[in-house]
Design a protein that fits this description.
Elements (H helix, E strand, L loop, with lengths): L15 H7 L11 H17 L6 E4 L6 H11 L4 E5 L6 H9 L6 E5 L6 H13 L1 E6 L6 E6 L4 E6 L7 H4 L4 E4 L5 H14 L6 H9 L5 H17 L7 H10 L9 H13 L7 H8 L3 H14 L3 E4 L2 E4 L1 H7 L12 H4 L13
Parallel strand pairs: 1-6, 1-7, 2-3, 3-6
Antiparallel strand pairs: 4-5, 8-9
Helix pairs in contact: 4-5, 7-8, 7-9, 8-10, 9-10, 11-12, 12-13
Length: 356
């Protein structure tokens, strides 16, 4: 079963054109990420003064927070062309060599999901980033010859959702590293106001707050919900949207007041009603909701853990007190999350799957 398109942090191909129209074109219009924005502005301004290409930039953080948008802004601020590729697309060193050899001076190369690039390509990238040179190996065996190829100065912008998977030598070659954090409701309201203005959509302050509070701290999701609210208002012939109407629209799309979708609620419902709050193994929980194990672990769990609704312990997944309250259920005294010691989650540690 596929991930809900409304609360997914990734975007579908048919949505990217709409998302591109809502992307800010410069750092001044970029909302949120104040520290990263100020630091990046300083790096780019210094490069302009020195009349040099900007240092290589690594952007990390969960999907949907603006890594691709910042890469486009870097190219625009430097008045340079932008080349876009991704780590999974570069499976051989020759693939990377072909891209690097075609770059023009000052061009910005954006590699999304850079941690998924193949190891041979990574090793070639070391020299390209540091010395602007790659060695092309011609021939095989004893007759193989390495031909050095000089590259014009360029700026590499790498984006990753899992910075810990990047090898140290690659990470150290980036001149600037920025980690993007989830947005506050107030910051998401600013994002929504700008998008609504571009879409010529009339929403009052309470309506913006209602949509922002259900957006999981992610601008991509906020803009997606805004488009669905727009569709609902068009069908129902509504001229101005308030909190009540925005809530009615999002309730129809099964996005509740905390941003949980159908899958999130199914996971919590199964955990509380079928397993007494846990602990329960991941595969057992996935079977109970009729989903693949990977879907539950990568789609539903991260947000539920971040919201304090679900805990991951060495014995399995447990429902925390907020989960029972959100579902309107009375929490039994025997539930594992009923005491502070039992409710303590272990961030970043996979629970042991004790299904047998």
């Amino acid at each position: 079963m596929m991930e809900s398109p409304l609360t997914a942090a990734t975007s579908e191909p048919d949505e990217r054109v709409l998302e591109a129209a809502l992307r800010p074109k410069n750092l001044h219009d970029f909302v949120g990420q104040h520290r990263v924005r100020e630091q990046l502005s300083l790096v780019l301004e210094a490069s302009k003064i020195r009349e040099r290409t900007a240092d290589h930039v690594l952007l990390s953080g969960p999907p949907g927070l603006g890594k691709t948008t910042l890469a486009m802004i870097i190219a625009a601020e430097m008045s340079a062309p932008l080349r876009i590729s991704s780590g999974p697309a570069i499976q051989h060193a020759g693939d990377l060599a072909a891209i690097l050899s075609s770059l023009s001076e000052g061009e910005v190369l954006f590699l999304d999901e850079i941690h998924r690039m193949s190891r041979p390509a990574e090793e070639m990238l070391y020299m390209a980033m540091e010395d602007f040179r790659v060695d092309i190996v011609v021939g095989k065996g004893a007759g193989a010859t390495a031909i050095p190829l000089e590259l014009p100065p360029f700026t590499l912008v790498g984006a990753t959702t899992r910075a810990g998977l990047l090898p140290g030598p690659l990470r150290d070659r980036f001149g600037f590293t920025g980690h993007l954090e989830f947005y506050s409701v107030e910051e998401l309201e600013l994002v929504l106001r700008r998008s609504a203005m571009l879409m010529d959509l009339r929403i009052n302050s309470a309506g913006f707050t209602e949509i922002a509070s259900r957006s999981r701290g992610t601008p991509r999701i906020a803009n997606r919900l805004l488009r669905r609210v727009r569709d609902w208002s068009l069908v129902h012939n509504v001229e101005q949207i308030d909190a009540r109407l925005a809530s009615a629209a999002l309730d129809m799309y099964e996005v509740d007041s905390r941003g949980l979708d159908r899958l999130d609620r199914q996971v919590l419902q199964a955990l509380c009603t079928k397993f007494g709050g846990g602990p329960v193994g991941l595969s057992t929980l996935a079977i109970a909701v009729g989903e693949e194990t990977e879907t539950v672990e990568t789609v539903a769990e991260p947000y539920l853990v971040r919201e304090g609704l679900l805990g991951r312990t060495p014995r399995g997944r447990i429902a925390l007190p907020d989960a029972w309250a959100h579902l309107g259920l009375a929490m039994p005294q025997s539930a594992p999350g009923s005491t502070p010691a039992a409710a303590q989650a272990i961030p970043g540690q996979d629970a042991l799957d004790l299904d047998e």
